[in-house]
Input
Amino acid sequence: MATVDEDLAQIEKDIRQLKIEYDQFFGGGRKRPPTEIEWRIDQLIKRYSERGGEMKYGQRFRFNNLSQTYAKYRDIFRKKTVQKEEGKVQRHFGAAAKAIEAERAEKEKARKAAAGDDTARFRVICSAPEREPEKVEQLYEAFMEAKKVAGEDTGKLTRSGFDEFVRKKTKDLQKQKNCQEVEYVVELVEGKVKLKALVKK
Output
């Protein structure tokens, strides 16, 4: 039986393949839409929508992003299929190229919209990171997953280095601002991942 990460990787792979095959379908290169791939994605998304509590935060973050991407693509494909059935989409290269370009524009619009979406954020409050390893682990997973989703390099990030950063940052802010708690926020801002440390009075 596949692991959660393997299933999420399969969903991501299938979404890419679905887009390719729909482009072929709208361009006249396929006679039928890729319903088998859609069915497989639907089954996996349904399974993990019902088992969200079994996933770690980073996995839920990735799943939510994949689900949003798939939902947006499905809406685009549904509208184009209706147009095709009504004869509004001509079967030649120019039409196919325009359809692909429109999808790219829609994807970029969706990416920018996701940057301000609450599902693209994670918050955790720390007062003593050395005694709150679970919170630091969740923060680390959320930060790493957000960077992967945004396509940013994670090669230089290590768990030990991240732990040390959170410990030092928390103590520094507690001393400077005379506060008890520090809230850490992972969010996407204009497609870039930010880790913010906010003082909690």
Observations:
- The CA atoms of residues 187 and 193 lie 6 Å apart.
